[in-house]
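Incident log, support desk, overnight shift.

02:14 A customer reports that sequence design results differ from what the structure should imply. Their input is reproduced verbatim below. On-call engineer (initials T.W.) acknowledged and began investigating.
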């Protein structure tokens, strides 16, 4: 079964009845470490693919670096929306790159990345402190890239950075 499906299934199994609060994912620190490890593995495997093409049509990637001080001053809802914006842009970049990569190794890694990033989008949509559907009406800081490996690097940085800190912040509230 695809890893993204596995991620989503394991997440759904831990959603508490009556409350869409995937507390185990947030409270069990080993899970986010596992996702960071998977992101690193995907990045490494993509780097080992032979002759990955340079993208003729550049992809637009979110800039996912952040200041910890600024991050701490934001509400969880703002953090969640910011990460969703980054993920939406990243998924779009992966989809764009998939159309340009015919080589099997690269295509397989991009497909896996696409599934993982989409699983996190679905997961983050279950946390909401404001009523109403999520709308990707956002314009995160971004850059154009022609190297496929930069897509994997951006994903790893996002999981290791904003997502890990977001889960850490949620854990303070949910894991008492």
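02:41 Re-run completed on a clean worker. Output:
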């Amino acid at each position: 079964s695809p890893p993204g499906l596995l991620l989503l299934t394991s997440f759904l199994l831990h959603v508490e009845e009556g409350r869409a609060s995937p507390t185990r994912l947030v409270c069990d620190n080993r899970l986010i470490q596992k996702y960071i490890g998977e992101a690193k593995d995907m990045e490494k495997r993509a780097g080992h693919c032979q002759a990955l093409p340079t993208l003729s049509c550049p992809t637009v990637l979110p800039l996912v670096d952040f200041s910890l001080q600024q991050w701490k001053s934001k509400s969880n809802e703002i953090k969640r929306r910011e990460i969703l914006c980054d993920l939406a842009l990243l998924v779009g970049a992966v989809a764009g790159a998939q159309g340009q990569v015919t080589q099997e190794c690269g295509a397989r890694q991009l497909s896996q990345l696409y599934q993982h990033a989409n699983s996190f989008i679905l997961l983050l949509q279950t946390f909401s402190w404001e009523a109403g559907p999520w709308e990707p009406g956002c314009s995160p800081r971004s850059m154009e890239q022609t190297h496929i490996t930069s897509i994997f690097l951006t994903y790893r940085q996002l999981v290791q950075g904003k997502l890990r800190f977001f889960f850490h912040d949620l854990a303070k509230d949910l894991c008492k």
